[in-house]
Amino acid sequence: MAAIAFDRVSKRFGATVVADELTLEVVDGEFFVFLGPSGSGKSTLLHMIAGVEPPSAGRIRIGGADVTDVPPQKRDVAMVFQSYALYPHLDVAENLAFPLRNRGVSRGAARAEAERVAAVLGLAGLLDKKPRQLSGGQRQRVALGRALVRRPAAFLMDEPLSNLDAALRIEIREEIKRVHQAHRVTTVYVTHDQEEALALADRVAVLRDGRVQQCAAPAAIYGRPADAFVARFVGTPPMNLVSAAALAQNPALRARLAGRDPAGVTVGLRPHALEAHPVPRPDAIALEVALVEPAGADTWVVAGTGEARLKGRLASGASLAPGAMAHFAFAVDAVHLFDAASGRRLD
Amino acid sequence: MRRLGAWIGLAAVVLWSLAPFAWQVLTSLKPYAELETLPPLLPGAPTLAHYHAILAGQPFGQLMLNSLVAASGATLLALLFGSLAGFALAKLRPPGRAATLAAAVTLSMLPPIATVSPLFLLTNAAGLHDTLAALVLVYAGFALPLAVWLMTQFFRGVPDELYVAARVDGCSAAGAFVRVMLPLAVPGLVATGLLVFVFAWNEFLYALSLTASTASRTVPVGIALFPGIHEVPWGEIAAGSVVATAPVVLLAIVFQRRVLEGLTAGAVKG
C-alpha cells in the first residue's frame, strides 16, 4: 500500500493533451477516480503509473520513492483493464497465478493462492476453464482476481465496467467497492462515467484537456462544481446552464445575482432542483412545455426555447402536456452561478 | 445457380493448380516405353522403376537431407529474428518503425539475381562456398524481410492490453515476449514458418550458384542435373519431383488447421 504522486507530469499524443503539468497526490489507501470524457487519454495516466508509458516531463512517485525510471515489473502495481486482458492461452487458475509465478512464488503456493482468490470472487468452479469459455462478468472477475492475488502497492483500474451490461456493471461495481473496503489498497480508477465515479470514489479528479478542473470528494463535485464544465459533466440529467440575462426578470434569481451584471453570469440549476407545476407559483419560472420524458421514478419536463430552456422534475401528482405552461419552482440555495466568460464558479 | 458457378470456378482453379503435379505423378509411374508417347494418358503398367532408380542410382537421399537442413535452418533463423523484430515493431514502438517496415517490404521485392554475384563472392571470402551454412544464411536473410513484416502484422493483432498486463504482472519486456506474446503468435509463427520453409525448399538460383557438390547440393538443383549427355530421364525427373514435393504437401496439411485457428479468441471482449 502506498501513496501515488504526480509531480508536474506532462504527456501528449499529437493533438491530445493527456496531462499538462499535472500535480496531485493520491493518498495511501484512497479510492481515487480520474473522471474525463472518452478519448481524453485517461488510460495513459494509468500507463504512466504502471511504467508502461514514460511521461514527457515530470516525476511520478509511489510510496514516496521516485519511480519515473523504474520498469513496470518492479513497481508493484496491479491493473484491471476494460478489455479484461486475460491471457487466452492460460486457464483461469494459471491466469490468477501468473503474477505470483513471475515473482518467484512456487507452483504449489501460487495455485493455493489462486484458489483462495477464486473462492472469494465466486470463481471456484471455473479454475480449469479458458477465458474464451467464460461470460463477460466472469472474465472481469478473473481480471479482478489477478490483480487481487498479490497485495500490490496500488490497484490501477482502466474503465473495468465499460464492457459489461447494465445489471452486471452494478454488481461488479459493488464487488470493487467491497474489495476496497476490505483491503484498503490504494486504488486509481479511470472512467468517463460520472455515476461510477460518484459511487466509488473517496475523491474524484475531473479532467479536461489534461488539466484537473476540480479534485474533491463526490459530494463536493456534485454539490459545488468548480466550473460550468464539471457542473455539466457530473449528474444526470446534466445541469441546466442558462444565461442569467434570459431569466433576469425572475425576482428570486435577481436577488441571488446580488447586483451582478446578468449578461456576465451563467445560471446553473440541476433538473432535480427544479419542480415543474401546472399552476403559477410565487418566484417560479414560467416556460412553455416542449417535451415530457417519463423516467420511472421521475418524469422530466423540458420547457422553453433557445436561451431559456430548462429541464425539471414534474411535481408529484401533477401532469403537464406539451404546449402547456410549466412553472418551475426552486430553492434559492440550489442556484449555482458561473462566470459566463471563464466558466468559473462565482461564490 | 450462383452456387453452381462457384463450384465450377473452384473446380477450374483446382484443375489448373493440380494438373502439372498430376502430370508429374503419372509420368513418374509410366514404364520407359510409354514415357514419350501420348496416348496412353494413364500408365498401362504402373511401375516404381523410376523411384528405385533415383533412390539407388543417385545420391538422392543426401540431396533430400541437404534440402531439409537448409530449409529448416533458414526457417528457424527467420522465425527467431522475424518474431523478435515483429514484436518490437508492433509493441515497443521504437522510433523509425514505419521506415523499417517500408524498408523490409522494399527489400523483399529485390530480385534474387541482383544479389547472386555479390553473395557468391561473400560466401567464398567467408570460406563458406559449397556449404549448407551458406545456404542457411542466405535463405534466412532473403526470407527475413517477409518474416519481419508478417510477424509484425501478427503481433499487431495481439491486443496491446495483453502486453501491458504482462508487464504489470511482473514480466520484463523479454519475459512478456516469451510467456505471453509468443504463445499467442503461434498461428503467425506457423504461417510464416511454412512460407519461409517452402521458399527455401524450392529455391533454385542461389542453390545452383553457391553449391558445387552433393555435399551441399539441394533437391531442385540435383533434379536439374539429372539429364545426361544423350538423354533426358523424364521418368526419374518426375519421380524426384514427386518425392521433393511430398514433404511440403505434408507440412501444409499438418499445419493448415493451426494457421487458420484463432488463438486469441476470448482474450479481450468478444
Describe this structure in words.
The complex is a heterodimer of chains A (347) and B (270). Chain A is of the alpha/beta class and 347 residues long. Chain A has ten helices and 18 strands. Chain A has helices at residues 42-50, 92-101, 107-120, 136-148, 166-183, 194-200, 218-223, 228-233, 244-247, 251-257, and strands spanning 4-13, 16-26, 31-35, 57-62, 65-66, 77-80, 154-158, 186-191, 203-208, 211-216, 240-243, 265-269, 275-277, 285-295, 298-305, 308-314, 325-329, 336-339. In chain A, β9 and β10 form a beta hairpin. In chain A, α2 (92-101) crosses α3 (107-120) and α4 packs parallel to α5 (166-183). The longest helix of chain A has 18 residues, at 166-183. Chain A is elongated. The model of chain A has no long low-confidence stretch (mean pLDDT 92). In chain B, α4 packs across α6 (132-157) and α7 packs across α8. The two termini of chain B are 36 Å apart. Chain B has twelve helices and no strands. By secondary structure, chain B is an all-alpha fold. Chain A binds chain B through residues 47, 50-52, 71-73, 75, 77-79, 81-89, 98-99, 102-103, 130-134, 136, 139, 146, 156, 163, and chain B through 159, 161-162, 164-172, 175, 179-180, 183-184, 263-270.
Summary keywords:
heterodimer; A: 347 residues; alpha/beta; 6-stranded mixed β-sheet; 5-stranded mixed beta barrel; 18 strands; B: 270 residues; mainly alpha; disordered C terminus
Low-pLDDT runs of 5+ residues of chain A are: none
Query: What letter string, H or E per element, gives the SSE order of chain A?
Result: EEEHEEEHHHEHEHEEHHEHHEEEEEEE
Could you state the oligomeric state of the chains shown? Answer: heterodimer
Segments of chain B where pLDDT lies below 50 for 5+ residues?
Answer: 262-270
Numbering strands along the chain, what is their spatial order in the largest sheet of chain A?
6-7-8-3-9-10
What is the terminal-to-terminal distance of chain B? 36 Å
